[in-house]
Amino acid sequence: MKLNRKVTNIQFIITLTAAPFALLIMYFSFNFFLEREIDKKLMLDESKIANLIENGYLSYKISPFAGFRVVSDSIAISQSVKNEVILDPFLNKNREFRTLTTIKKINGIHYLIYVKQSLVERKHMVYVMVTVILIFIVFSAIIFQIFFWKMQNKIWQPFFNSIDKLKKISLGDETFPKFDPSDVDEFNMLNKELNFMTNKILSDYLSLKEYAENAAHETQTPLAIIRLEIEEIMQDDLPNRVRKRIYKVYQAANRVSLLTEKLLLLTKIDNLEFNKLEVVNVTDLMLKEIGELDLLIKQKNIAISVLVKQDFKHSMDLYLLSILVDNLLSNAIKHNFQNGKIEIVSERESIAIKNTTFENVEVTNVFKRFYKSSKTENSIGLGLSIVERIAEISKLHVKVESLGNTITFHIQKKIV
Amino acid sequence: MVDYENRSILIVEDEMDLQESMRVFFTEEGFQVQVAKNKFDAEDKLIDHKFDFVILDSGLPDGNGLDLIKVMKTNQKDLGILILSAKNSLDDKLLGLDLGADDYMTKPFHIAELNSRIKAIYRRRQGRESNGLKFKEIYINLDEQSVTVNEIELPLTQKEFQLLVYFINNQRRVLSKESISNHLWESQSDLMGNFDLIYTHIKNLRKKIEGLSGKNYIKSVYGMGYKFISE
């Protein structure tokens, strides 16, 4: 869920949860204050009546809701306010009234004065007020949410711009986008850090690339000298003992050279230097490579069968694909035994290479760099690591299955 | 027929040991060799002399060697250029070939391979009439990719043909199995796993030549490789 949506949702939930409590508080507050106002009015009316009595007014019933009468002197002077339901003579209906009853001594006589005030108006007033406020709250909550949501999108825009720029960053481009300053401090801080971080990554990447290339240059040149000089020594008439030793040195030099070359290739793959994406037919290239390696296959008398249910096409760098196919096929030949088998099955979304092998393979180890099976000569143990890295950066998945004396490599499109 | 005697070659290489080894090798092969250790030096030599080939290191102390190709091609259109680079970079290779270089090799290289490629460049530049190789009774027509022994056609597979050309270009030299494998399968040579295929090809080629000439020119050199030699 988007942060925007989450924040507005939380706000909405809080508003809706708080609203009933607010309404209850409002309802009771209104009631309380209106009651106080009514009581004040009742007291005022009562004072007026007392004043009339004092001035000799003798009619006992001033209105249906106010009046007085003489009571025994023994009744103590008091005042009480209560709610009661009485008949409203105008409407001929029982209604709730607030009644103030006072026992007062005026001109030496005890009087009971009563004043009543209908509570129906008050209730109506409270209901109307609460309803109006409720509508106002809900309406403003909705308006606020819409406005806030729109504003959020606008406010968060610099953040989304930065994310878009980050997504487009590719090390192979060698130039990174600039993260523009923002008028929001937090985004400004983020962009400032992103600029710093990406510049650092780029400069580290460039120096690493330069280092890798320079390291290769610096290693390959002395290796060229070693190899060249040994090849010249090999031309001399040497005793067999010396010849054997010289050849060992020569083989070691070749091995170092091959190792440097493969490690450099892995570095280049890791650095995404091969990034020309095009739709390539993996099946076609596999068939072509089988043709190229035909002699090796015949040499071991390997029976090769290819079942093309459908062509497997994928968008990736052609050079990387050729390395991947070469390595997989040569692996299937190298680790195969005389009169062994290779079966290739091509489907729309995958290709599988199954081969017989002379050893039990631990599938968890096959992709480890420098992992070598005990029985293979001249292997530096990087071929399948290269396969795995190529697959990884080309959105492919390599699955390995080992069963008895067969091993199968499934290359399939990665499900995103 | 091709004659490499007295053909002139300029080796532009800043690594002095490597430069010296190549100078000695090509001098022994009969070439007139001059050397340069940087771009400035190379430009100087190119103005003073007319060369048949240039072996050009791409990474020179005073700049990219590839910049020299334009100058070379302006002064002398038929100059054969082979780039020698420490970088195994496809872009670099394509750039070099686009600029007009004939071939591209990466370090470390086998000197026999360099020799073979230099000779191939020369033959290509000389045209049809030079495109043949002769060794005693063996004649190789490089255009038609055919071989005759005592004027009788010798049927060879493509790899056997490549192998024979490589041997004749580097006759009397011990060629290691690695160097042969590299020549026949180039970058794929490390996928081979072993040299069994080379043994098979050599055995077959030897048998085929012997069948027509009665002589075995391919000698095994104990523990190292093979040598193509008449005696």
UniProtKB/TrEMBL annotation, chain A:
Catalytic activity as recorded in UniProt: ATP + protein L-histidine = ADP + protein N-phospho-L-histidine
Membrane-traversing stretches: 12-34, 126-149
Keyword terms: ATP-binding, Cell membrane, Kinase, Membrane, Nucleotide-binding, Phosphoprotein, Transferase, Transmembrane, Transmembrane helix, Two-component regulatory system
Main location per the UniProt record: membrane
Database matches in InterPro entries: HATPase_C_sf, HATPase_dom, His_kinase_dom, HisK_dim/P_dom, HisK_dim/P_sf, HssS/ArlS-like
The keyword Repeat appears for this protein: no
Tagged with keyword Ribonucleoprotein: no
Membrane topology summary: Multi-pass membrane protein
Gene3D superfamilies, per the entry: 1.10.287.130, Histidine kinase-like ATPase, C-terminal domain (3.30.565.10)
Domain Histidine kinase stretches: 214-416
GO cellular component terms listed in the entry, alphabetical order: plasma membrane
Enzyme Commission number, as recorded: 2.7.13.3
A single GO molecular function term of this UniProt record: ATP binding
Cell compartment(s), UniProt: Cell membrane
PANTHER family for the chain: SENSOR HISTIDINE KINASE CPXA
Listed name of the protein: histidine kinase
Species whose genome carries this gene: Putridiphycobacter roseus
The organism's taxonomic lineage, starting at the top: Bacteria, Pseudomonadati, Bacteroidota, Flavobacteriia, Flavobacteriales
UniProtKB/TrEMBL annotation, chain B:
Molecular functions per Gene Ontology: phosphorelay response regulator activity; transcription cis-regulatory region binding
Domain OmpR/PhoB-type: 130-230
Domain Response regulatory positions: 8-122
Gene3D superfamilies, A to Z: 3.40.50.2300, 6.10.250.690, Winged helix-like DNA-binding domain superfamily/Winged helix DNA-binding domain
A single BP term in Gene Ontology: regulation of DNA-templated transcription
DNA-binding residues: 130-230
Keyword DNA-binding recorded: yes
Pfam family, one: Trans_reg_C
Modified residues annotated as 4-aspartylphosphate in this record: D57
SMART domains, alphabetized: REC, Trans_reg_C
Cellular component, GO, one term: cytosol
InterPro entries xrefs: CheY-like_superfamily (IPR011006), OmpR/PhoB-type_DNA-bd (IPR001867), Sig_transdc_resp-reg_receiver (IPR001789), WalR-like (IPR039420), WH-like_DNA-bd_sf (IPR036388)
Keyword entries, A-Z: DNA-binding, Phosphoprotein, Transcription, Transcription regulation, Two-component regulatory system
Family matches, as PANTHER family: REGULATOR OF RPOS
Protein name: DNA-binding response regulator
Organism (species): Putridiphycobacter roseus
